[in-house]
Every structure is written in structure tokens, then in C-alpha cells.
Amino acid sequence: MKIGNIIYKDELVNHTKQSNINYLNIEDDIHEFDQTLPTLFVGWRFFKENFGTIREKYGVDILEKTIKNDLMYWEFSFDENKSDHINGINDFIISLPRLFFRVKYKYISIDPIKSGNLKIIEEIKNIGNHIDSIYIFKNKYAYMLIRNVVYGLNLEQLRFLINEEYTNEIISFIKDKTNKIFFDGDGEFFKEKLDDFYLHDYLYRYMPIILNT
User: Fold this and answer.
1) What pLDDT does 199 receive?
2) Suppose 76 and one of 17, 29, 80, 187 were both cysteines; which one would form an S-S bond, judging by CB atoms 3.0 to 4.6 Å apart?
């Protein structure tokens, strides 16, 4: 699963390449990159000389490293500014999961209070007839992927506000609407992905996306 692009000419100093990032250097077709993914262009001169159309479209100058919010950024090469180069690439890597999920997906929490407690199943019925994948974290939370939206259910809250029986009824209902369900009883699926996504704070809610790929 690729969550971003880094496009560059010169060596990326103090950086270990990540398996979930597309890397394109000057020897590749640098203009054939997935523009739906958050992208970092490394090297101000490199960016100016090769991506004039993008620069003109967004009015980019050397004082502003954000080209398009959440989607495109540039950073200095090591020769241009050593500290900015190292720190900027690292900051992009750390921010990448948040950028990727915010650009590509929406998160909605199903609130039992707003839903009217016993009407939660009806609300899920109205969302869609098929759930792409479901991730259940330690039997405490359920996250459902439907197209580009993740819907979250706090199972502990449901047990407290309503009862165990109705909560189990909801779980059975959503299970019947998918052929991809991931039970993470001990949180091991979640732990395995933390390194790839740099301890992203809300990673668990996006696990049905990650495990569905």
C-alpha cells in the first residue's frame, strides 16, 4: 500500500527509504506520479526546472513550502540547505499517514446518543447494503469501510448505554454485510502496522483500509 510520493534528483541524506512510499528520481519519468497521493518534491532548483506548470498553477515561491494543502510540498536538497533537507523530509514522513487518510478518506463516528440508541442498525442499513471491510479492535471498537468513508462504532459505549445483547446483535448484523472482517483481539494487527505508519494517533480507525488492500 503506497501512501505518498517523494520526487527528487540528488541523494536523500539521512533517510531510509520506506516501503509504503513511491520514490521517483531524475532517472525515472518524474511527471508520471500519482497526483492523488501526498507528494514531496526535494530540491528547490530541481522543482523550479522540472515542474514549472505546477509552480505557476499554485504560485509557489521559495518562502512557502506548501504547494497545495495536504497534497503537495517541496523541500530543499541537502546541498541547498542541510538542516532543512533532513528535518523537512523527516517531518513529511511523520505527517504522511495523516495527510494520506485525510485526502483520500472521511471518518464518521456513529453516535448512539444522536442515533437514538436502538436505531443504530437502521442507521447502518441507510449507509449501504455492502461493507467493504470491517476491523474490530480488542472487541472495544468496530470500524467499517464503505467506499471512501470509515464509520466507527464504540462497542464499549454501546454495552454501557444499551446492553451486551444489542451490541452483539449489531456485530452480527455488520458481519453479514461483508466478506472481509478482521478481528484483532489482542491488537497484534495494529502493532504490526505501527512502524509503517509512524505511531499514527488514529491508525486503528483506518485499519479496515490498510487490511483491505
Assistant:
1) 65
2) 80
